[in-house]
Amino acid sequence: MIKVGLLGCGTVGGGVYNILTTKKEDIERKLGEEIQIKRILVNEKNKKRKYDVDASLLTENYKEIIEDPEIQLVVELIGGETPTLGYIKEAINHHKNIVTANKLILAKYGREIFQLAKNNNVKVYYEGSVGGGIPIIKTLKESMIANKIGRIYGILNGTTNYILTQMTEKSIDFEDALKKAQSLGYAESDPYFDVSGLDCAYKISILSSLAFESFIDVNSIYVEGIDKIEREDIEIAEELGYTIKLLAIGKRYEDKMLDIRVHPTFIPKSNPLSKINGVYNVVQIHGDVVGDIMIYGQGAGEMPTASAVVADIMEAAKSIKYHIENEYSIGRLNGLKLIGTDEIENSFYIRLRVNDIPGVFAKIAKAFGDNEVSIASVIQKHRLNPVVPIFLLTHPIEEKKMKKAIDSLKELDDVIEIKNIIRVEDFNEKF
Amino acid sequence: MIKVGLLGCGTVGGGVYNILTTKKEDIERKLGEEIQIKRILVNEKNKKRKYDVDASLLTENYKEIIEDPEIQLVVELIGGETPTLGYIKEAINHHKNIVTANKLILAKYGREIFQLAKNNNVKVYYEGSVGGGIPIIKTLKESMIANKIGRIYGILNGTTNYILTQMTEKSIDFEDALKKAQSLGYAESDPYFDVSGLDCAYKISILSSLAFESFIDVNSIYVEGIDKIEREDIEIAEELGYTIKLLAIGKRYEDKMLDIRVHPTFIPKSNPLSKINGVYNVVQIHGDVVGDIMIYGQGAGEMPTASAVVADIMEAAKSIKYHIENEYSIGRLNGLKLIGTDEIENSFYIRLRVNDIPGVFAKIAKAFGDNEVSIASVIQKHRLNPVVPIFLLTHPIEEKKMKKAIDSLKELDDVIEIKNIIRVEDFNEKF
To answer: In terms of residue numbers, what domain contains B275?
Structure first.
């Protein structure tokens, strides 16, 4: 019998408890071993809960779990940083294996936690931390074990994907789409963590650390949110054959560096990623042997995450039962450094407001040409006022050259405003 | 050290050999154990091979592998039924674990092989048998272990998906698309096995046997190929908002029976399955906890399949090293029976050729109405001859009632021909 301690009994924790109790027989048959929840840490023992939890299991003292020598596996579903980080470290120091869905802690303290786990000869499982029920960690660790991973693309945040989908399908503004997401419970009342792209940055740092075997410092990832996207950008993207998504990108760069970024991105409509709508998440991975694999599913929510956590519990239980040492342990061998966005080559979409006078476009074209930026297409919408919006799509160019071209544009009297600049992903790399 | 015997060194076998030798260090680091290919069965030792294979490993005598007491794992990549089935059974009787990508043998003799493996206390791994590099078996067995699987939808055959994609995108006929597929090596010179839907039937029987824990007899699956699909069907599907795909379906039916089928299917364009084009494969699974998961990748080809086989070899090696008994063994507990298509409710698309005279549509509508079939939409294309094509879409109706309606139609003098009947999948089940 494997004895388990649960930290937290909220939405995901309650879901995990519910699955482990209602599907007990089925799980034991598949595993060949009983899993027993011995104790559950809660804030308040007498609080009303969604699921009927055996009250005798509840405790308000984390030490009753972490210091119990019978408990071999601690499942952390409290979330947040404090006091969770302390609990996890203390549990590892007491030689407990860990299952967690805590992206914050893994992204910020992953290096420390995995080292501590190694020192204490225990393992840390984290399928639920990225992409909810999408089996992305297992796919990277096991199914793609024969592959060198070249790149990862992810739509990893359901809130922003819902907002962008609404803006695209219903032709509404960002603010209205955000309000709709909030009213449906898809966005928090303070949406900053999602809308700013930070949530995605945590997740791509976890995936990249695993896939490229190099710990990625989440603070050094370039992050841009979706709050500057306007309805006009989305309409023009459609017209040009693209869909705007908040894309998380992790790529090897010439085999010596890594290119990790999160930003709104023009995705060609021919790419299946452009069709992943609403609160769904998706990850597309390129391996040198298998080519492209894409996995899609519900990226968050109580039950999808609980499904991933239970799979981790089963994996951990198997590992404990059979004394498996080397859980395809990811070597963290390479100290691959991040490359700055300045060096990266992308096509760019640019939206300008200019004075509607003859010769203005020639000036813009010259500012680009002087900085080696070549224009792929231009859309000019005629309006009934002296100001005309211009939409440009460039050919691929290094970002630092693009920045110089933008600086030159800003010096032109007839360029009133540079409204938006969005990167275009062409998905045409050779591995 | 785990010693492995390879049966076959063709496209996939050569790919596996190549990965295991070129990535030897990486694989050993991840597994924590050396994997050694001890011997390789080939037809002809002196044949020229794509990869540089160590000639001292080659043998033309299968007994040198199957009877070698040092070899713990036999990797079968010969394909076909004879002599492969005999080799696999003999290897299991000699207590070898098996990795295979042989869908034919698993679908036809799976029950016997898994029983034999159980009796001999060895395991059979088969990720490469369905969907090439798509990690669908591991996802079903491990990642979705907390789930009761409600339904599986698969586009599981790259040849037919390529042909249908070409017909859709290029507006060409079946015969021309087939020729193009053959010229590119995506279709065999005798395309029967793919085009008839049989290949898909083997694959969905393997997936369903695993997901529903009931061995499915592949011969009792309803199978319909794509050779009757004409350009006109595809054009009308587009007009109605659908894409035609060869869909493999596995569903629980009222929790007591299973509904397993392979046939051309109208898929709404809003469903991501409709966007999976070309030689790509996709599987969409619904679990009661996690909701929908979709996995997509290259469904065939030397390297994607080799990637899956190497992942299985690693899994098997881990299992051997740590004496893992219960590989989440799938119980095969339920003896769920298949339900006949007559009982299944679908919407239907029907293409007719009728005499272009007043009142003909009223007669058709009556023939449907008399059999409880209600019409959802009608498209009538005007042509410059006395015959007019009519395209109908029905509301959902039991197939046996639909058949009666079709019989009534056939009795009408003005119905010249029933050109095609295609099922529509609405994807609106409640679990």
So the answer is: 136-299
